[in-house]
Amino acid sequence: MSVISRPEVAHLARLARIDMTDDELDRMAGQLDAVLEAVKQVAAAVTDDVPATSHPLPLRNVTRPDVVRPGLTAEEALAAAPEVEDGRFRVPMILGEDA
Prior knowledge:
About 40% of the residues lie in helices and about 5% in strands. The protein has helices spanning about 5-15, 20-45, 75-80, and strands spanning about 85, 90. The protein is elongated, with a radius of gyration of 30 Å.
């Protein structure tokens, strides 16, 4: 027995504003039946003694701790720049003068 009917699929398609042919509606009804059957099997496997989890393995943070370290001075950063203007990197203009 079909879990979802063709008229229900047509209604869902209208709600989602998806134009579907009759063949597509028939095929989608079968495909949605398969999806709903799979969800039903998963729901049947759920037991009270198994806690809900978002991941099969425990997560842990693998990033290094933040440590403040001295960075480059403005002069050191600009030392290798091809062009410098007013203590800043000078780059070619990419937008018109109006921008």
